[in-house]
Amino acid sequence: MRNDSRLSRMLHVLIHMDKHQHSATSDMIAKMLNTNPVVVRRTMAGLREQGYVRSEKGHGGGWTLVRPLSDITLLDVYNAIGEPHLFAIGPADDQPQCLVEQAVNVALGDAMKEAQALLLRRLDSVTLDKIAADFEAKLTARPATSYSCAS
């Protein structure tokens, strides 16, 4: 199963957007993420619907952050991008009548519900300004020429 990196990528984008005074076009963001602008627009739409960004069409338009990073949690972004699956593992359904499979699925289901609840609580406890502060600390500790990010 392929990793779903939308959460990580959107966190990356939002922190960059906070650092820049001008709006970011879908083309600029797509170049930074090495993806297609259509994918960017589709993913950013969820953030717009939740009130974290806005978009302007036409010359000088693009995406703009409208809430401070301190008001946005990892869980907020996770929810805005459609709550992708958190785990690649899951129950089997090859032999639904098999009592062993049923027992395994119950055990896995319970463990995964517990893990998901813990992860969602953790995502809700971290705001984007904390991540941005970590970036700033790392940037300060490095020589200026060692920072590279295409934005």
From TrEMBL:
Asked whether the UniProt record includes Translocase among its keywords, one would answer no
> SUPFAM superfamilies of this UniProt entry?
Winged helix' DNA-binding domain (SSF46785)
Lineage, top-rank taxon, reads Bacteria
User: What InterPro entries does UniProt report for this protein, alphabetically?
Assistant: Tscrpt_reg_Rrf2, WH-like_DNA-bd_sf, WH_DNA-bd_sf
GO CC annotations, alphabetized: cytosol
Keywords associated with the record: Plasmid
Matching entries from Gene3D superfamilies are given as: Winged helix-like DNA-binding domain superfamily/Winged helix DNA-binding domain (1.10.10.10)
Pfam families reported in the protein's UniProt record: Rrf2
Q: Which GO terms describe its molecular function?
A: DNA-binding transcription factor activity
Per its record, how is this protein called by name?
Answer: Rrf2 family transcriptional regulator
Lineage per the UniProt record? Bacteria, Pseudomonadati, Pseudomonadota, Alphaproteobacteria, Hyphomicrobiales
